[in-house]
Amino acid sequence: MPLDPGIAKLAELIDRSGRAVVFTGAGISTESGIPDFRSPGGIWTRMSPIDFADFLASEEARREAWRRRFALGETLCAAAPNRGHRAVAELVRRGKAAAVITQNIDGLHQASGIAAERIVELHGNTTYAACLDCAARYEIDRLREAFERDGTAPRCAGCGGFVKTATISFGQAMPVEAMRRAEIETLAADLFIVAGSSLVVYPAAGFPELAKRNGATLVIVNREPTGLDTVADLVLNRAIGETLGTAVGVD
Ligand SMILES: [Zn+2]
User: Fold this and answer.
1) Of 61, 159, 217, 221, which residue is the least packed, with the fewest Cβ within 10 Å?
2) Cα separation, 146 vs 148, whole angstroms
3) CA 131 / ligand 1 centre spacing (Å)
4) Percent of the chain with pLDDT over 70
5) Do 205 and 197 form a contact (C-beta atoms < 8 A)?
6) Average pLDDT, the chain
């Protein structure tokens, strides 16, 4: 069967690229059963996210944040990388993609076999937790056991600071090092592939704009139209896994 022309074009752009960057959002992970928090009908339209200032100010807000995280636990544990993640991993393995910049917090790029140093997490990672004061790392399962025992939000054993999932909450500063790495990788790329992001969350969504302004070819693969479709060189409004999988030749 002949390749779909859009996918053939993507394959050709990948072939010609010397250094690509893949930028991923919720759309790549919904195909693994991870809920999209921001979409219509998503979790945050049913319950508003807990603001970082509230987390710091209120034990009840911290308990609620942890209750929600533990409730999400089984969904996250059951999720495995899908064809889209595998295609991205293959691009990294071939040396085509130098980096993956992601808005996702689910750790599925790591689970697909990409080395952590190739992944830039703009919104952090919810598969583990850290002390907000001393950055000591905590594992979710241990925190859950303690929470179920005494019902209080976890505190750092070392310094007494609040322990929070290693994610960036609303109202929390963007991670300086991740933003710096994302900018360096964006400026070094000749091909910038957006996969599964509607590009509405800034400053993250600024990276494809920056890549385009810097002369890179911009490709957007997303089920819904995005705000940057008019400036992109190629837009594919289709499923992520099938599109990337076919373009890269990965099942
Ligand atoms: Zn601490």
Assistant:
1) 159
2) 5
3) 5
4) 95
5) yes
6) 94
To 10 degrees, what angle do helices 206-213 and 176-188 make?
30
Q: Smallest Cα–Cα separation from 103: which of 80, 119, 92, 127?
A: 119
CA of 120 to the centre of ligand 1 (A): 24
pLDDT of residue 164: 98
Distance CA 172, CA 16 (A): 39
What is the reported pTM? 0.93
Query: Using one digit for the tens of pLDDT, what is the confidence trace for 13-71?
Result: 999 999 999 999 999 999 999 988 766 556 666 678 899 999 999 999 999 999 999 99
Query: What is the per-residue DSSP string for 139-181?
Result: -HHHHHHHHHHH-SPPB-TTT-PBEEEEE--TTSPPPHHHHHH
The DSSP symbol for 118 reads: G
Query: Ligand 1 centre from 248 Cα, in Å?
Result: 43
How far, in Å, is the centroid of ligand 1 from the Cα of 134?
A: 4
**Residues with active-site annotation:** 123
